[in-house]
Amino acid sequence: MLKRLYDHLTALARRHAPHLITQQPPEQQIKPLASGLAREGILVLTGLPAGKEQSEIVANINVWIGLYGRMYEVLVEELFPRHTRVHAEYVDQLLPPILMLQGEADHVIRVIAGYIIPYIAVRQGERLISEAELDGVMQRVLEDLEASDLKPAVYDRVKRAGVAVLHDLLKANVKQIALTDFIKPMFQNLPPTELPKFEPSKPDVPPPPPTLPETPPETPKKMDTQVMFASKIPIFFKKPPTNDDKGVKRPPLPPPGKKPK
């Protein structure tokens, strides 16, 4: 899994920010690469989805990535209204999933990577998390985005919407793995994020069949080389339109107040 992460991160870096690639050992480059790509507006996400059936796993991933899309929308709506485009896609067909979420507002991607993701990774699964702590997370995010010039009512609305997304991310059926560290310390009792020790990948991965089987196989315990999709990989949000694209300009994210289905 670590090699797979490294390969995809370096491929993205070569395309968007070649200066991020160093001569350090691959395992030491994963977090710097992910953090550097976030500064370029590219958020690389991975996690361990719950579920036994293929359809259940995919549904859990869709909800999870949709929540990150919703967080992006909450933060750009008032602060960067001209930079609302965002899309997400898988980088390959394997499990655990690795996804790329790209947004026009690179500052927003940076704070999601540097506050939201590591916070969810260390707090997910805990039963008692105070509203004051969630409120503090969003205050730190908005402070970093220099949102103090918003009208008090607007600031409070953005903060409350962000807290609602945090609640849902903490309950998501995908165990968050943080590829990025906190930009600044959040709370004294929060432990640092660490990459888990993944099972080693098998040397050869069989190619996916040309069509989906009638009955999806159960997900094995070792999910690293499990083929997720035998057909085209779904795109969760519309890609930013090109000059030849007359499609939807805004990504199909849930409207404010509604959770993604």
Residues in β-strands, percent: 5-15%
* CA-based shape: globular
**N-to-C SSE string, H for helix and E for strand:** HHEHEEEHHHEE
Overall mean confidence score, pLDDT:
80
Biggest β-sheet description: 4 strands, antiparallel
Please give the number of β-strands: 6
Report on the architecture of this protein.
There is one protein chain. The protein has one domain (2-205, 216-227). The protein is 41% helix and 10% strand. The chain has six helices and six strands, in the order ααβαβββαααββ. It has a four-stranded antiparallel beta sheet. Strands 3-6 form a two-stranded antiparallel ribbon. Residues 201-236 and 238-253 have low confidence and may be disordered.
Descriptors:
globular, 41% helix, alpha+beta, 261 residues, two-stranded antiparallel ribbon, 6 strands, 4-stranded antiparallel beta sheet
Question: Could you give a quick summary of the protein structure above?
Answer:
This protein has 261 residues and is α+β, with helices and mostly antiparallel strands.
Write the layout of secondary structure elements.
Layout: H1 2-16, H2 26-39, E1 42-49, H3 54-79, E2 86-90, E3 94-95, E4 98-103, H4 106-123, H5 131-144, H6 152-171, E5 174-177, E6 226-227
Antiparallel strand pairs: 1-4, 1-5, 2-4, 3-6
